[in-house]
Amino acid sequence: MQKIVIAGLDGCLGSAFLGLTDILTLARRAIAAAHAPAAVASGAEDFSFVTASPTGGPVIAADGVRFDAETSFEEIASCDA
């Protein structure tokens, strides 16, 4: 399984941070639907993703909108993208 990290920094474009999470969520659903029921039965996923920020705290976009991050950069031991 490939692990993808969506890195968020304060001052980023909120659409880029949130948009990537939306695209990857939809892609995972489409892949699961295309492989169902075999993929569901095996529990296999092609990729996973996580949102991260330098501290693990919220990311404040350039327009002031706040996005929660799941983890900090330091907590990520490795990733594929």
Quick recap:
The chain is α/β, with parallel strands linked by helices and 81 residues long.
Overview of this protein structure:
The protein has 2 helices and 5 strands, in the order E-H-H-E-E-E-E. The radius of gyration is 14 Å and the shape is flat. The chain has helices at about 15-35, 40, and strands at about 1-5, 45-55, 60, 65, 70. The chain has about 80 residues and is of the alpha/beta class. The strands form 2 sheets. It has a 3-stranded parallel sheet with strand order 1-2-5, with helices on one face.
Low-confidence stretches: none
Secondary structure: helix percent: 25-40%
Strands, total number = 5
- Count the DSSP helices: 2
Portion of residues in beta strands equals: 15-25%
Oligomer: single chain
What brief labels describe this structure?
81 residues; alpha/beta; 3-stranded parallel β-sheet; two-stranded antiparallel ribbon; flat
Helices and strands in order, then pairings?
Layout: E1 2-7, H1 14-35, H2 38-42, E2 47-53, E3 59-60, E4 66-67, E5 71-72
Parallel strand pairs: 1-2, 2-5
Antiparallel strand pairs: 3-4
